[in-house]
Amino acid sequence: MDAPLTLAAAGRFLVKTWDDESVVYDLLSGDTHLLEPLASAVTRLLAEGARSREEVTRRIILEFDLTAESVSEPIATTLTHLQRIGMVVAAPLETR
After folding, report:
1. Pairing of strands 5-7, 88-90
2. pTM for this prediction
3. Spatial separation of the C-alpha atoms in residues 35 and 32, rounded to whole Å
4. Structural domains of the chain, count
5. DSSP one-letter code for 52
6. Does residue 49 lie within any of the structural domains?
7. 69: which of 10, 50, 53, 59 lies 20 to 30 Å off by Cα?
8. For residues 43-66, b (16+ Cβ closer than 10 Å) or e, as one string?
9. pLDDT single digits (tens) 55-95
């Protein structure tokens, strides 16, 4: 099982959500990012607490009634992107 992931420390990102998409402003870098529906759903799950990639995938499959084959790769890509922009990080040891 892979290490749990969580959202970056509170206060780094400003988030505005419309329906199922979000715009995120990174106060540290000044960058703005559009989060499509899958990324918005993933960040919402991680806001509830640290989760492994497998758990994120499982919860998205259940929430949206999808198949693992249809979402496993997009979720992996989404998590990699969210980590690259600094919004998702490895969970601290005390939350694992």
Report:
1. antiparallel
2. 0.90
3. 10
4. 1
5. -
6. yes
7. 50
8. bbbbeeebbebebbbebbbeeeee
9. 999 999 999 999 999 999 999 999 999 999 999 999 987 65
pLDDT at 28 over 90: yes
Determine, yes or no, domain membership for 95.
Answer: no
Residues 6+ apart with CB under 8 A from 25: 13, 14, 15, 31, 32
What's the order of all strands across the beta sheet hosting 32-35?
A: 13-18, 21-26, 32-35
CATH code at 43? 3.90.930
Whether residue 96 lies inside any domain: the answer is no
Look up residue 21 and give its amino acid. Answer: E
Please check the confidence at residue 2 and state whether its pLDDT lies above 90: no
Burial class (CB in 10 A: 0-12, 13-18, 19+), 8: middle
Sign of CA dihedral 54, 91, 10, 8: negative
